[in-house]
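[job 4471] stage=fold_predict status=RUNNING
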Amino acid sequence: MWSGPSIRGGGITQSFFDDDGGGAQDLVDAIETWWTALLGAIVADNFVSVEPTVVILDEITGNLEGQVTTTVSGPLEGTGGSAPLPPAVQGLIRWFTPVVANNRLIRGHWFLPAMSEGNNESPGIPSSGVVAAVNAAAATLIGDADAHLVIWHRPKAPNDGSIGAVQSASMWGEWATLRSRRD
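[job 4471] inference complete, writing structure tokens
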């Protein structure tokens, strides 16, 4: 969950994992490691808080099957020292899977709000440094043996949900704007 002056009205980044890795605490630890690696790119006074509750869903139906409460380290504060980019300007990490559902490859996107002006280079694109940092953090998350990141294809008809294991990721070489909940 996001909060801070560069994140108008707050926000949420949702992640999904399969149950073949470690336990719920391992998943939370992996997400906290991901965000901690990116704190230097996020403007100070903006926070990301990892939820301590891990919800368990049936991947096929989307039905709630339970939840587990974990321990989190608390809100993580950005440490970026330069001015913020406009709130509509965000980084974009693209997650890739080899899985096909409904004749389309299952892909995922996470938007990265509260980016600092120090991450911007001419002609108004993400700096090579922030792209490298995001890509390195993504590789670490994908390679975590205890947390298997997946993209969930939500069921559109009864019992047609599925997941695709994330195999690679990259930060887009342009700034992005989240225009709706489904972008």
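[job 4471] summary: The chain is about 15% helix and 30% strand.
[job 4471] exit 0
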